[in-house]
Design a protein that fits this description.
6-stranded mixed β-sheet; alpha+beta; Glutaredoxin
Length: about 170
């Protein structure tokens, strides 16, 4: 089952979280880049691994030159479990390369604002069990979320084509 692709126009506000190295991460530092943002949690049994695997294929498909202008970001929906250390282990399981892919966590208040900004619903069912909107967003160089892939397995070829189209606009 492929994700549904929707065209959107949502301004993404700056935010600050912590990446997999426990380093502060600020969204404003990505101005001028195309950003692919996914929402996932590390103990997810089904949808999140599919989204993460798709993003890994997107990352692999980028040329060395494109990587300078494209950033992948995975934002946790379960900050209770997803510490920087846990996110690092999760990323490594998928062969993620950290040169242009950040795995982010933070406090619940900060995360809730981000989830809301992207239109992601998050409902905690129990420890390590979270229901959330399976969103992969493509944000342009001006921080406008232009595309939303809703569902598991966003097609890496389609995401790459969308990213490249945005890169050509600038």
């Amino acid at each position: 089952m492929r994700a549904q692709r929707r065209v959107t126009r949502i301004q993404i506000n700056d935010f600050a979280l912590t990446d997999q190295n426990s380093t502060p991460f600020e969204f404003k530092n990505l101005a001028g880049k195309v950003v692919v943002v996914a929402f996932a949690y590390t103990t997810c049994p089904d949808v999140c691994p599919l989204i993460t695997a798709s993003l890994r294929q997107v990352q692999s498909g980028l040329t060395k030159e494109e990587r300078k202008y494209v950033q992948l970001v995975t934002v946790t929906t379960d900050p209770e479990i997803d510490s920087p250390k846990v996110l690092t282990a999760y990323a490594k399981r998928y062969g993620a390369e950290f040169d242009n892919w950040s795995f982010l966590t933070g406090n619940l208040t900060a995360l809730k604002k981000i989830w809301q900004n992207f239109g992601v619903g998050v409902e905690r069912k129990g420890r390590g069990l979270i229901d959330h909107t399976p969103l992969t967003a493509v944000v342009d160089q001006k921080k406008l979320m232009r595309l939303a892939y809703i569902g598991p397995s966003p097609d890496p070829k389609a995401v790459l084509a969308d990213v490249r189209a945005m890169l050509r606009e600038h």
